[in-house]
């Protein structure tokens, strides 16, 4: 998959999901919202966008998972924000 140009917000979400779900077991959207201090609506909009771009999968009313490409980018952006 060719990496698309991501916004700062998309990078922040991917890094947060990666940090919250280091084992790949899935996390709830509410955890993302609390971590990033954003509304549930904002998380929902961004999750739809990340699903569309192929970086996450999402169960309806369930957990969010990084795809292999999303996990790779999440790890990259999580390392960049740790500096």
What can you see in these coordinates?
The chain is globular. The chain has a three-stranded antiparallel beta sheet with strand order 1-3-2. The chain has helices at residues 8-20, 29-36, 40-52, 68-82; strands spanning 27-28, 56-58, 63-66. The protein is mainly alpha-helical. The mean pLDDT is 91. The longest helix is centred in the C-terminal third of the chain and has 15 residues, at 68-82. Helix 2 crosses helix 3. 59% of the residues lie in helices and 11% in strands. It has a single domain, classed as Winged helix-like DNA-binding domain superfamily/Winged helix DNA-binding domain (Arc Repressor Mutant, subunit A).
SSE topology:
Layout: H1 8-20, E1 27-28, H2 29-36, H3 40-52, E2 56-58, E3 63-66, H4 68-82
Helix pairs in contact: 1-2, 1-4, 2-3
Compact description:
With 83 residues, the chain is mainly alpha-helical. The protein is built from 4 helices and 3 strands, in the order H-E-H-H-E-E-H. The chain has one domain: Arc Repressor Mutant, subunit A (Orthogonal Bundle), CATH 1.10.10.10.
Relevant terms:
83 residues; mainly alpha; Arc Repressor Mutant, subunit A; three-stranded antiparallel β-sheet; 4 helices; 3 strands; globular
Shape: globular
Percent helix, as a range, is 55-70%
Q: Determine the strand fraction and express it as a percent band.
A: 5-15%
Helix-strand pattern: HEHHEEH
Q: What is the highest CATH level, the class?
A: Mainly Alpha
Q: What structural category characterises the helix and strand content?
A: mainly alpha
Mean pLDDT: 91
Please report the number of helical segments: 4
Largest sheet at a glance?
A: 3 strands, antiparallel
The rounded Rg comes to 11 Å
CATH homologous group name: Winged helix-like DNA-binding domain superfamily/Winged helix DNA-binding domain
Number of domains: 1
For this structure, the CATH topology is Arc Repressor Mutant, subunit A
- CATH level-two architecture: Orthogonal Bundle
């Amino acid at each position: 998959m060719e990496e698309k140009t991501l916004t700062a917000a998309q990078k922040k979400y991917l890094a947060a999901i990666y940090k919250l779900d280091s084992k790949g077991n899935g996390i709830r959207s509410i955890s993302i919202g609390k971590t990033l201090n954003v509304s549930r609506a904002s998380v929902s909009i961004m999750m739809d966008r990340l699903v569309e771009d192929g970086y996450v999968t999402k169960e309806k009313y369930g957990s969010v998972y990084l795809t292999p490409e999303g996990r790779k980018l999440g790890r990259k952006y999580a390392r960049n924000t740790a500096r």
